[in-house]
Write a structure and sequence with these properties.
Radius of gyration of chain A: 23 Å
Protein name (chains A, B, C, D): HD domain-containing protein
Number of strands of chain A: 9
CATH architecture of one domain in chain A: Orthogonal Bundle
CATH topology of one domain in chain A: Hypothetical protein af1432
Helix content of chain A: 40-55%
Strand content of chain A: 5-15%
Distance between the termini of chain A: 52 Å
CATH class of one domain in chain A: Mainly Alpha
Pfam family, one (chains A, B, C, D): HD_assoc_2
Structural class of chain A: alpha+beta
CATH superfamily of one domain in chain A: Hypothetical protein af1432
Organism (chains A, B, C, D): Alicyclobacillus fastidiosus
Largest sheet of chain A: 4 strands, mixed
Mean pLDDT of chain A: 92
Oligomer: homotetramer
């Protein structure tokens, strides 16, 4: 009997009963995820948010394993071991391509992490060697699943939809690590609400409130954690640091720079091997180096990040174009380059999406309906946006009264 | 009213009601602790153990705050605000001097982290500036407390003894992060068990079992978490990497090396400013660089750490001197330099210590007794040692049968 | 220093620091609440729901104590010790008048439990003796608070409103005991969201999402726990048993009956002393006696309750008047008296109420708005009703196909 | 697929996948356990301890189910469905024979609850009808298991030994309900530590510390919860009430008495049907009746219980025979009959037992050893006794100074 058990703060125990999956865990590409935080810069807001994409990947795997135990009892799906392995491997590997401070990094790199996940799966030798022990199509099928080609509909839905093992794990894990209760929901019951018919995943009608709770938990996590103004301000700072370094490089200014970061910032071709050397230790080290750079903007921004002197947000609601110009002028007057010290950011709180990807409820008589048809609560979950401007805190502490009036008080409780 | 509240996974909320303490949190020296893990390499064993010394420092502060709320009601101690501030600041700052992968680093540096804590308190400008706002002796008094000079007996005991806010916080935090239940105890009741008389801290006799539970929790954390063979093996690996780099530098071999690390490895004088630039991102970055070094030992060891191909332990119990020599010979035959690939390590599980530092129980009639006089369970907690040898896993997988017989099976469940 | 500490599964510790409150806990009227479950017949659905009104009363007291600790720091309210005592005593005593299987019992008795709470406060000697130690108006002022006379506005709101210590405690306690996660919310943060100005309670605008989470938790508790069809069916059974006994007594049929229950069922005047002898042990004992009664309806109904052969619900949605008549006929044909075996019940899921009792948000600039103006989610929380018919399970198991089609599948998972 | 799921505060979900087990849950004999608390009078000390033997029986069943899931994977045991059913049914039904306030009741009745469990299994029609659907020996085999006849060694050990599903569930459940953390241990890991070879249950050597933690948790539960002096004092009160009623009946004094209780108190033959009508509602109702009895001792004792004016303990350590006589004299002088108001009670804290029933560790090489050989901590767990005298609190509040000196202060924090 093969059995590896890992202790986990969310699921208590994570069980590996298939040597293939365990071999995947031990590849360098997966181990690298230990050096990338799940929540990017959220640890600047919630000091507990240090958990990694590695822990989350194990948790997504374990959630999938439990989903499959349920579905096998419930409806005999999946019926073959290869499908089971595809589902488990897809859950474990779905985040392979994330870079340091993921979403910020993507915007600099100009490539979605999903693309990198696919490339690593297909091109990384060590990983490929393990995947190919199943068969030579296994890696390609995994990519197909993550691309949602429609060839493995049920697995695709379980790995990436509005009710997938990815979100089930990260919401619970993020809630535990930050210490907030908002992200909690009834995991075991939610898992039991699922059923598969003709390769499609359905939610049982009787579990309506369980799904409502889960989707509302997601809403609360967005407004309280994922889009917390201090976190968004930290993202802005990381992005501005990288933009400044990129700009300096483009201008031919010599700055110290970790080798693995160079092609990213110069816009050269990035190889898979080079990408896999990128992690948050590399980025933080670059910030260390840059904090003593002779370029004052770069050194000031990097030092702000390392010592957590973050940008403060003001709500953009009423700010007119002229006010926006006035803020840039004010920044300049205080010695701050507006391009790097006054940044606008629009954050989107996702809603429940019906078109093409809604959750389908199935009642005892085999009748289907979209979740939003049945639940008034869910219909309120439409996407909304937060417009905010981020500035050095010093600008708010000056005697610019009308400005400080629009500052969230919550922000100051964290800064 | 000044109030800053931080959400915390262990204490739910951490409350700052004194601007001084909040200003201390925001110094670069304290913020640096965000980049140093509380449990060193334990995250290689327990993937949840990513929590930082920063989070723990906040938690030790909050525990002290609650202890003081209790003691003020219980016995009117402390009676003056300066003593309160000393106690809170000492709790918050007690870990300032930790370096990356702390205990391992100390052995290379040859200096205890406590020494660095004292130096940073006295010499770091930004920190000193805040401390001096109280009075010019405040920093010195803090150092005096941490040195246990005996001038502030009660605070000294609350900050560092067998029942202090440091341990109360880290046991709960380590238990939560790793996911084990071993470290849990009744915090609120333990806090209420404390009383201060004539500047000495006592434990109420009626709380005997609460203290027993706490001390046994500590024992279990040592055997299950702190001295887990995979963790000790990871420490050995870090230490051997640093030893190799140091050796190469001493031999005049040119290796890439982060600037902040250079004086440490060459044995030069290390300034406070330079020390404060050291954190785990710097060390991990060095490992990245070294993993492509032309020195094969250095590059192999660094790569092992980054890809988690750790050393495996064998129990040393019966191993005679001749067997020890045989293992070194075997290593050499397999191409492993014995100096870096066969390492002995003795780990000490601390016991309950009576001499000079026992816990004193106080009964309702004012009579004192040492905890160990009253509790049979506590008397079993005497220090013990684990002798282990660490080797590349490959050596165990060869057909050296008598060797693999002595390997803990638990180890393999993690490797 | 006066200090009594009780261990509590919800709040960890409940602290009494005022001998008056402790003396109140030890009155027979409060101790009687140990014999009345908080959730009535919910334990038939959730086997963990055995927690008592006594435990909840202690929890409401502790929640109030924490609210007052916060408000004293926040805004210096309450400023005098008598107001503090009023608030704490009102929280502790607010449920005094509950009878066994409370809401069901009320409908038989024809008197609201609140009326009994007031009478007990004013008329019970042992309780009055303690209350009068404060002053001779203390008991009357407590009644005034519970009646919401408007003389103690802030306390009234904290004891009974849409955001009061009563609900804060019971939602957490009910969630813990049943094992569902739906009722959880951020208690500490919710408490800190409160402020008092000019004797009115406000919620800080920045805590919007905390209040949303709390109100949604309440919604989920209603749909998942409080109005669970199995629980409502158990209530119907208790009510029908009592109705049958009352009917027999009115008809002059001699049945065994506990003395304390006699005036209730005969409609005679009930004294406070007699009311205080009523608890769930008395009712259950009556059911025991009645289960061997010679009246077949009474004995069958009582035996059903004791052996948990409950009524099953069918959703009433589409049922026309003719169908309703058909069901009564069908019951009769199977030997079930329709008056006691076919019962309609309308349950109301409360919504957020604005008129006269909404929650007022207060922003940093002193501007007020009703919660429903700001939150789209809260606006969906309008009252709704569930119409259900309850029948013996045997009726559903017959081959009456169209009937069983309308049965909630969730019901069968519990029955 | 048969599936019934119950929500549980300890195990989250309890799963029934075999209709036989579900049918057993729905027998009157099992449903009766809803009216008997798991911890007897502990709710007088810990107000949360209202959980029932019914909830615990479900929990013991669920723990057994998980143990079997593990053992089936681990070592293919049990190999046949009948053995599985025996194990699950034994776990579910092991507490059937408990009476109200169990251990106290046994001492009055003079019969162990185990005896009643066996009788109910064999003689109760409704239960027997379900059991006989398996085969006609099933009920007898269950009794054989509970009697530990040695015919089903492994099941016997899993149902009743020092490491059985009974204790695993009740320690966690008692800890949760009371709110103490002492009873917690690593359930999932403990379950995985078990293995079966040749019908014997072993504990894997590598799980040594997991078992240590579990056994120490048990020790702490005894000293902090099960033998809490307030609880023991409540037991004494219940016993003295019943003794008084029995005495009065023997003397021919007419007292009101619930019918089901009569044979028990008169020492007549008690039938199974009559026994099954006994539960805590019956006993509490009797106390209600007796609290207005004309016998002053009976009415006072019953009223004390209902209003929680409990007996207070004094430690017996040094009390000589003469002092004991003095206390009886003092009681008499204060109007208390010494036979009912001065009671000595010896409570035994069980230790780890080796003889014939120790836990056997099995290492990777197939070698066995008793747990106590390996663990110093476990060797300290030897049985010990607490001698206490219980008296009306009034006796301690008189000015008998040397007496009150020996009173546990902990007691007063609860009384």
């Amino acid at each position: 009997m093969f059995e590896k058990v890992l202790k986990d703060p969310v699921h208590d125990e994570i069980l590996f009963d298939d040597p293939l999956l365990w071999a995947l865990v031990n590849t360098p590409a997966v181990q690298r995820l230990r050096r990338i935080r799940q929540l990017g810069t959220s640890y600047m807001t919630y000091h507990g948010a240090e958990h990694t994409r590695f822990a989350h990947s194990l948790g997504a795997y374990e959630t999938m394993r439990r989903v499959l135990v349920h579905l096998e009892r419930e409806c005999g799906w999946p019926s073959d071991p290869r499908t089971r392995r595809l589902a488990l491997a897809a859950a474990l590997l779905h985040d392979l391509g994330h870079g340091p401070f993921s979403h910020t990094f993507e915007s600099i790199l100009g490539v979605h992490h999903e693309r990198w996940t696919h490339r690593i799966m297909l091109e990384d030798d060590a990983l490929r060697q393990v995947l190919d022990t199943v068969d030579s199509d296994f890696a390609k099928d995994l990519v197909s699943i993550l691309q949602k080609d429609g060839r493995f509909l049920a697995i695709e839905a379980l790995v990436s939809s509005q009710l997938d093992v990815d979100r089930m794990d990260y919401m619970l894990r993020d809630a535990l690590s930050t210490g907030v209760s908002y992200g909690r929901f009834e995991l075991a019951r939610l898992i039991r609400s699922l059923t598969v018919q003709d390769e499609r995943v359905y939610v049982k009608r009787q579990s309506l409130h369980t799904v409502e709770q889960y989707l509302l938990a997601r809403y609360f996590m967005y407004v309280q954690v994922y889009l917390h103004p201090v976190t968004v301000g930290s993202d802005v700072l990381v992005e501005n640091i990288l933009r400044r370094a990129k700009h300096l490089l483009a201008d031919g200014v010599a700055i110290e720079i970790p080798e693995a970061l160079l092609p990213v910032l110069t816009g050269s071709e990035v190889s898979v091997a080079s990408y896999l050397r990128l992690d948050e230790s590399v980025l933080l080290y670059a910030f260390h180096q840059w904090s003593t750079s002779s370029d004052q903007i770069l050194s000031d921004l990097a030092d702000r990040f390392l010592t957590r002197r973050l940008f403060a947000p003001i709500v953009r609601d009423g700010a007119s174009v002229s006010e926006w110009a006035a803020l840039r002028t004010m920044a300049k007057a205080m010695g701050f380059s507006p391009d790097y010290y006054v940044t606008e950011r629009v954050s989107t709180i996702p809603g429940y999406e019906v078109l093409g990807q809604g959750l389908t409820l199935l009642n005892d008589f085999g009748e289907c309906s979209d979740l939003s048809q049945v639940s008034k609560l869910i219909r309120t979950l439409v996407p909304s946006q937060e417009h905010r401007l981020f500035l050095p805190k010093e600008m708010l502490e000056s005697d610019n009264e009308p400005l400080s009036n629009r500052v969230h008080s919550i922000v100051f409780s964290r800064l």
